[in-house]
Amino acid sequence: MTVFEQYPIASWKVGSLPELKFPVLSISETGGNRIVQRERPYRDGAKLDDTGSKAKGWQLTVLFDNGIEEEGLDPSTPLYPTILNELIASFDIHETGDLVVPTRGRVRCRAETYQRDETEGERDEARVVFTFTADNEDNVGAQQFEQMTINASAVRLAEQTTFSATSEGMWSTSLEDLNEFASELEGIANFPGDTVSNIDSQCGIVVGAANRVGRAFTRENEKNRNLMNDPELSMTQRKLEETKDMASRARAEAYKGRPRMVPFFVEGDTDLFSIAASVGQSSIDLMEINPGQDAFTVRKGTVIKVLEQA
Hints:
The protein is built from 7 helices and 11 strands. The chain is an alpha+beta fold. The chain is elongated.
């Protein structure tokens, strides 16, 4: 017995319809990765970004002939035209269903297309090619369909901005910076060990990078440098504004539920531990909101940040 002969029979069930079983002549599977090519000036080739997998699809060629005998088929229900018509009718049920692909097993799919061929010379049978596409969101809980979190949006927005700009014929090293800085923001915003001040600083860097991209392509009197002067004509401009808004909201989320920071003017040489004691706050909090400040040496005239008193 060959491997193919050991595969289960193909079937399709969607909605309230009963499971429909049918014999398969051939199976064609499609899939792959979504690769974005980013060509750069004065550099051979392209940088490749893998943005995920393409949707998997299956094309099943089926012969509906009542003379076919195969294990799993119901001999009391004719393949032609009963099972054939019920399968085609299932395309009117716009839901995700269960498809058993003999070579792959059960997959969650949508019925996408069919092509039915019948000829006068071959009566009482039909050859049909069905196309099904995998649905990777069908069983996701409703809570996962809520608006994406800010932290998960940073890289996506930066990539969309870069794609829009390059597709419009623009390029700038600032676009590379924007991708890099957005990636860093997403990383620190999702890592609980990072401080609020780190997130605050990185948000400012992302906004600055977005502004540099905008300036790079809106300078007047330079060839191809005024492409974004009219926001209505540029997807890139809109994505840049969304990116800056995302960074601002990331900053707001980081500070949510925390006291506001206020400036504190140091009147004499001291250290953060003494300042913390004088304002009744934790030295750990002060070190967190003042990154880069030497905790043991704070010079007269320095302005540091402390938490606003309730």
